[in-house]
Structures
1.
Amino acid sequence: MNDSDESWYDEDAGPVVRLYAVTRGRSGTRRTDVDMVTRVVTSSFGRLRRHEPEYAAIVELTRSPLSVAEIAARLHLPITATKILVGDLIGDGVLDFRAPAAGPGAADDLSVLRAVLKGIQAL
């Protein structure tokens, strides 16, 4: 490695890139229908046009349905960044999604939150 490469690499963490570089400076998404329990799957109609490796990794992971929380855990990204990237792919037609059912008390359903936590801990 030359000196310029060493400043972008940490022995334990690997490549070091600031989060805003991954999300192109965005700290939130306009999509209000995507949250951490939203399940996404690769669409058979969309075509990946983005070249960043995080997008390709998400498409590869979602060949079978996964929640946004599971994607974030597997890619070691914060939920907020993952929601932005997933939202981009949904907008491009690359991912299909199903938001959790909204009903009385759905946001407060502890069984859903426990299941998500258990899934994340299993990773």
2.
Amino acid sequence: MTLHGTAVMDGDQVEVRLTPRSEGTAAVADATVRLRWSVALADEQALPARCVREDERAVLCGTGALAVDAAGEQLRLPVRLRERAPEVTLEVSTVWSSGGPDADRSNDRAEVLVLATGDPYAF
């Protein structure tokens, strides 16, 4: 599974748009991705239904089903940081995947530096 998307930071708000894609030879019934920030998130968050807080810096989100060699549904995840920061590092990784084994785990992780410019940063 590959993970592609963008992250935009404006003030203490970060919006991530993530599209998972199955690159394997078998469909994936569901998978879980972890989004971890280099700074703490605010205590109160309005997370999408398929996401849950893991700890003070991370959120886990389900991807839903992924067909063979196809993109899944885009996940839009807005979060608030505990404090404003000039930049944050966002790590995105697959932590669980149903279905067949993934022969190439190197594409299950992405890291992006997001500056507080309001511009989208791609991963």
3.
Amino acid sequence: MTATVGTVLRGRTVVPGAVTGEALVSPATISGWGGIDPASGTIVEARHPLQGVCFTGRILVFPGAKGSSGWSAFFQSTRLLGTAPLGMIFTVTTTKAALGAVVTRVPALADLDVDPVRVLRTGDRIRLDATAGTVELLARADGHRAGGGT
């Protein structure tokens, strides 16, 4: 599937709420314990494709969590330190990812009808309405917006 402006993906609510913002798409799972720096909201995991990239204030789109049960504690720390992602969209629901979203207290959606990692791009402007179970592509990272034009 090729996503165009106006495309709506549907999924299962993990944490209700709605936010609009820039997507940060990770092609790989993320390790919480030792994989992120909660103080800066940066992915620090060695050899991760997004090593050194900050997720603070962005909607984190990723395949899921990996590592130990400490994953959720590290993401809770991002909430407490003000460095949390704006929202979370993950491909596969695991207890680590779901609990991480709950304690981070950001809108979160999972198990979408289309793999969001494959159709969304870093920099896309999206509307995550986890209460309704939808993600809408508002504008492509290249500047194309809903209603045509740039």
